[in-house]
């Protein structure tokens, strides 16, 4: 079981946008971090990254670190995985998978073009 500090909760919602003024929200999953196992987080990540109706998955960096091997090995462009900071845990750019990929692409591009 994942142990959280205090009462950290999270919610997974599906938001369907019909137009700029109308959208529909539906809660898919809700839990307290202290009640959620790493296996449940892994299963939810796998489910949301294989659904065709999801374009972006927002995940807090704290939760992403619990399943870092899955987040780092995910390599499809859609859905995009974006790590966001949480209120209770500071952001660490060293663990941001998107930032790491961007740095890698720019370093590869620099080497390929002869620039450093």
The best one-word shape is globular
- Based on secondary structure, the structural category is alpha+beta
Named CATH architecture: 3-Layer(aba) Sandwich
Oligomer: single chain
Which band does the percent of strand residues land in? Answer: 25-35%
Q: What level of helicity do the residues show?
A: 25-40%
**Spatial order of the strands in the main sheet?**
1-2
By CATH, the superfamily comes out as: ATPase, V1 complex, subunit F
Largest sheet: 2 strands, antiparallel
Give the total of beta strands. Answer: 4
Please give the count of helices. Answer: 4
- The number of distinct structural domains comes to 1
Termini Cα gap: 45 Å
Write the layout of secondary structure elements.
Layout lengths: L8 E9 L5 E10 L5 H13 L5 E5 H6 L1 H6 L6 E5 L12 H16 L4
Parallel strand pairs: 3-4
Antiparallel strand pairs: 1-2
């Amino acid at each position: 079981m994942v142990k959280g500090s205090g009462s950290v909760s999270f919610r997974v919602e599906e938001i369907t946008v019909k137009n700029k003024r109308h959208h529909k929200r539906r809660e898919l999953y809700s839990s307290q971090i202290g009640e959620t196992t790493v296996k449940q987080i892994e299963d939810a990540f796998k489910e949301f990254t294989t659904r065709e109706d999801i374009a972006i998955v927002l995940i807090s960096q704290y939760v992403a670190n619990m399943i870092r091997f899955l987040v780092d090995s995910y390599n499809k462009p859609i859905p995009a995985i974006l790590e966001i900071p949480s209120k209770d845990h500071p952001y660490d750019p060293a663990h941001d998978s998107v930032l790491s990929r961007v740095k890698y692409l720019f370093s590869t591009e620099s080497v390929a073009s002869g620039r450093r």
